[in-house]
Design a protein that fits this description.
61% helix; mainly alpha
Length: 66
């Protein structure tokens, strides 16, 4: 149980967030990373699946630790 004396450890994001905010930030990062990947790295032969995997791991990290 949490009480008034419990101290929450702040996340690495520079703003105060709740779970929905962190989920939204993770989705925006997912879209931005995939668009940048398609523009710059996919023409070089790197699969978009790599960008999706990186985005999912980064999104999980943002939601859990952000």
């Amino acid at each position: 149980m949490s009480g008034p004396d419990d101290k929450e450890k702040p996340g690495f994001l520079p703003i105060e967030t709740n779970a929905f905010d962190r989920g939204f930030i993770a989705v925006v990062v997912f879209i931005a990373l995939n668009l940048l990947w398609m523009r710059f790295l996919e023409p070089l032969g790197l699969s978009l699946y790599i960008a999706s995997a990186i985005s999912i791991v980064l999104g999980w990290f943002i939601i859990k630790r952000g």
